[in-house]
Amino acid sequence: MWAVASLLPARRMLASAPRGDGRPVMLLPGLVNSDRSLFLMRRYLRRLGYDAVGWGLGRNLGARAIGGEGERLLARVARLHEESGQTVTLVGVSLGGIMARFVAHRLPEAVREVITISSPYAGDPRATRVWRMFERLTGERIDAEGVVARRVEIARPLPVPATAIWSRSDGLVNGLICRDPEEDGCRAIEVRSGHLGVQIRPAVLRTVADILAVPGQGPLGTFRP
Question: What GO molecular functions are on record for this protein (predicted)?
């Protein structure tokens, strides 16, 4: 409720963001969430001029949603790439950001850049308060051989430009594993936000808009709106 209330006084700041160029942007929700959780971000990016779409796979229940090898999500991104004739920008929240990195590794020719928001991809999943819930909802054990191999792949430097938006005050995941300071080609941008509702925080919305305006460029470091 506080995140929603903060949008009103920030409307001028949000409206002054750079205009988009019509490129396709796919938004990937966090654990348990669906495209509805990203409605405000999708609407905001569309108003700026981007072709922002949801992932169209229902609730994010890990492999149960995207397929055992991610084939459903990979097919969705490949289809958007083919239909638009452009590479796709992936913006993922929490688990959605981890999946965005997975797609970029598997389909680099279809991905323009990756933006993760509060996504704990760079460390042990036990450095979160939700890893047990992840196991119950997805049916996957974080120490299973296949899951560990996928985690290693996702944490490797991406073959496309990337930005990791993170917060020290996240509350549900350790913000320090939501970015890897040693990863070349990935900017780490710090914001002040808790985990719940991070996707509708004015600072996060504006940061995403600013990143999209200059994709793959800009200095590495910390940014506090």
Answer: hydrolase activity
